[in-house]
């Protein structure tokens, strides 16, 4: 049997690519199930009881707004757009200045979402759509 290496490489590349995420894939409210800090030494996470008590969630709206709620209060809000597997978030701070940072989406399947901030103090959130 004869193999064509460039064709095999192309097939492997195409099958390994994830489709780009669309904003519509995110619209709605996502309840946090797990919050982890995998890069901490030692790795850390928010306990189940605290998650139940604080009831955190992230909400994406059709007007491209993003709201993060923790303990019944808005922890962060701003605008977002999606590029590939990244949520590019521009947070509006209390003094009306902004700061921008990306969230990387490592999993989304319509009901479950896993996103994370990258870097030394990165946080990984696992959420379920309400």
Mean pLDDT: 87
The number of distinct helices, counting runs of at least 4 residues, comes to 3
CATH class: Mainly Beta
Helix content: 10-25%
The major β-sheet equals: 8 strands, antiparallel, barrel
Give your account of this protein's structure:
The protein is of the alpha+beta class. The chain has one domain (21-129): Lipocalin. Helix content is 18%, strand content 48%. It contains three helices and nine strands; from the N terminus they run H-H-E-E-H-E-E-E-E-E-E-E. It has an eight-stranded antiparallel β-barrel with strand order 1-3-4-5-6-7-8-9. A hairpin with a 2-residue loop joins strand 4 (65-70) and strand 5. The longest helix is centred in the first third of the chain and has 12 residues, at 5-16. The N and C termini lie far apart (52 Å). Mean pLDDT is 87; it is low at 1-16.
